[in-house]
Write a structure and sequence with these properties.
Chain lengths: ~375, ~300
């Protein structure tokens, strides 16, 4: 429909359309655009559903048209916002792409995942997907290996505190007046850059190798006759924790170092003048001042640690007897080796709920603690 | 300020230093000992991997460590990859495979990082400057919505993505991988960039707006150039994360879009004595990032510390 500029106002003298009127026209266009895009999206969706259920046969091989329709719709939505709401729309257009992207990529899979979680679906079985209610949940509660993996996560998360202590020590060292600081900083940072998969081989499978690995040789020299790093449950767990620490300590160290460097110099000077010893000034001044940074670092690391999987998958595959299994690596094997999609997804969704509760409690506890200590 | 009372201050400083030195001798020695010990711990595995790629079976079993002293370097490991000087010009299926994986890794990580930095920076700028209200969600809630994606473990998304991608025909494609990786690094990019934009004074854009720039014009012409170092930092950090990603790559790719970590992992699976070729692959896989770490350390530190340290 073509809209010639009609003087809508009561003043007939103004032949040129004024701002408000232009705004009105572009708003109308915006609405039209958005409606058209929505209708298109819904039409494509309807077609695809019909096609998938076998009612029509236009030869759609995949759901890809829906993806394109969604992208088109998202673009139309942004454009319509600008046309309808002017400056406000321009502001909204900054955040909209990220929101639309994240919603499309997260919300659908999560909802769909919830559905899968309540089905009995094994990719290698002939029978397809079958709704089986709470069976998966029941299996989960009886699954000793899953609870074992969850218990392992407790150890892995607890190990973050040890990593934190080491990282803090290293940050203090780097913050001291030393030569070649740049060299040490780069050297300390390097493990963070390496892929956990490569680290799995470099350390787990060659350095710690029983026969020829230098770590094993060193251990023999130190008097340990049988340096099999992955033989007993605790030993294997410690080895995995050590490898993970090697990769992730630099992350904590860098953040803590930045925190140390941001500390006001006067505070430390004052402590020095007062004759505080190194340990005293650390305990009374540096550590309390570093609490906020420490909190952030530890919480971030815990969140990342909850996803730990790569090293375990590649070095021990959960062994011996599930002693090093993380929840993620356990579910990975459930998918990969047993093709047990329905049950694996139930485990994942259950784990997600556990994580959300756990992280929410930590965040709450941390903020309360910070308030009290202030 | 320092010019007039220079002499006394310097004097004082020197006496201070002299009187301190004996007392400080042992602690500083200890500090250096600890530093060197940790530098050794950090670097030895890398050194070990690189040197092992030049070893032969005898050197591995006898635990030789130092090239030219303990053992004569040999191209054996690199030859099996088709990357040694004598095989580099000859056709090699292993090398073709490796180059393809390497290229896939580059495309996936650079593409995802680019996409994430673009939409992440836009969102971060919006969240840093304007106040939104969408249903019950205000800026704080929207930021939390983005950041909360960090908590989501890959296992939760993996299976639904597998099914979704199968229906969208995105399985085993680089586009599919790029989309997942973008989702993975987007929260981190938004976090870094919001911190960057917060440090840029508002007055700059206000002046531009007064001069007749539109909101987007002010953003593109004034703010973006200032925020560029932050964007580079976010980009590099994203590339590192995507380059090392294994979980999604292992599940969502099979032959066409397989990335380097998946290749490395599939090689390690065969528990053989073939250490030199494993070491060569591992070396080739970590080298790009070791170089990035050495030369772009400043940006990595900048990216890591943005937002976390106030």
């Amino acid at each position: 429909m073509s809209h010639t500029t009609m003087p809508a106002g009561t003043t007939p003298s103004s032949a040129v359309p004024d701002r408000a009127e232009l705004q009105l026209i572009s708003a109308r266009r915006g609405r039209l655009l958005f409606t058209a895009a929505t209708i298109l999206l819904l039409a494509v969706l309807a077609l695809q559903v019909l096609e998938a259920s076998g009612v029509t046969a236009i030869g759609l091989v995949s759901w890809r048209p829906l993806l394109f329709a969604y992208i088109l719709w998202a673009v139309a939505l942004c454009a319509a916002q600008i046309l309808i709401r002017g400056e406000d729309g321009q502001r909204a257009a900054f955040v909209l792409p990220a929101v639309l992207f994240t919603v499309a990529m997260v919300v659908f899979p999560t909802v769909f995942g919830l559905y899968i979680a309540f089905t009995d679906w094994n990719l290698s079985a002939a029978a397809g997907r079958r709704f089986n209610g709470l069976d998966n949940l029941r299996t989960l509660f009886a699954d000793v290996y899953f609870w074992n993996a969850l218990l392992n996560m407790v150890y892995y998360v607890a190990a973050v505190l040890v990593q934190y202590a080491i990282a803090f020590g290293l940050a203090l060292l780097l913050n001291a007046e030393i030569r070649a600081r740049k060299f040490f900083r780069v050297a300390f940072l390097l493990p963070l850059m390496l892929s956990p998969v490569a680290v799995s081989w470099m350390i787990g499978k060659s350095l710690m190798e029983y026969r020829f690995g230098p770590a094993a040789t060193l251990a023999r020299h130190l008097g340990w006759d049988n340096p099999a790093f992955f033989s007993t449950p605790w030993l294997a767990r410690t080895s995995i924790i050590a490898m993970d620490a090697w990769v992730s300590i630099p992350f904590m160290m860098i953040l803590l170092l930045a925190g140390l460097q941001a500390l006001p110099a006067e505070v430390k000077e004052a402590a020095k003048v007062d004759g505080a010893s190194g340990w005293q000034s650390f305990k009374e001044i540096t550590f309390p001042l570093m609490l906020p940074v420490s909190m952030t670092v530890v919480i971030l690391r815990i969140i990342f640690q909850l996803k730990l999987a790569d090293i375990v998958i590649n070095v021990t595959a959960g062994g011996p007897g599930g002693a090093t299994d993380t929840v993620s690596s356990f579910i990975f094997r459930e998918y990969r080796d047993r093709s047990n999609v329905g049950y694996g997804t139930m485990l994942a969704e259950f784990y997600l709920v556990v994580i959300i509760i756990f992280v929410a409690l930590i965040l709450k506890g941390a903020s309360r603690w910070m308030q009290r200590s202030n | 300020m320092a010019s007039i009372p220079y002499a006394p201050a310097g004097d004082e400083g020197r006496t201070n230093l002299w009187s301190r030195r004996p007392r400080f001798m042992t602690p500083s020695l200890l500090i250096y000992a600890a530093l060197i010990l940790w530098a050794f711990i950090s670097l030895f595995p890398i050194y070990w991997t690189i040197t092992t790629s030049f070893k032969t079976a005898v050197n591995v079993t006898q635990g030789h460590l130092i090239p030219f002293v303990d053992f004569t370097p040999d191209w054996k490991g690199w030859r099996s990859l088709g990357l040694s000087p004598d095989t580099i010009s000859a056709p090699s299926t292993v090398r073709d495979e490796f180059v393809r994986r390497f290229f896939n890794s580059i495309v996936a990580s650079a593409g995802a990082s680019f996409l994430a930095v673009v939409i992440g920076s836009l969102a971060a700028y919006g969240l840093s400057r304007f106040s939104y209200k969408f249903l019950w969600m205000r800026n704080k809630d929207i930021s939390f919505f983005f950041l909360s994606q960090l908590i989501l473990p890959p296992v939760v998304l993996a299976m639904p993505f597998l099914v979704l991608y199968k229906h969208l025909m995105l399985l085993d494609t680089l586009v599919g991988l790029i989309l997942v990786y973008t989702l993975m690094v987007l929260p981190i990019v938004i976090w870094i960039m919001r911190d960057q934009f917060d440090t840029i004074p508002l007055e700059l854009e206000q002046a531009a707006l007064v001069d007749g720039c539109s909101i987007w014009g002010a953003f593109l012409r004034i703010v973006l150039p200032i925020a560029l170092p932050g964007m580079v930092a976010a980009f590099i950090l994203s590339v590192i994360l995507c380059w090392n990603e294994y979980f999604f790559a292992a599940l969502l790719t099979s032959s066409n879009a397989k990335t380097l970590p998946v290749m490395v992992a599939s090689q390690t699976g065969s528990q053989g004595i073939n250490w030199w070729s494993m070491a060569a692959i591992a070396t080739a896989a970590i080298m790009p990032l070791v170089l990035v770490g050495i030369f772009l350390e400043r940006y990595i530190v900048k990216g890591l510390t943005a937002g976390a340290v106030k």
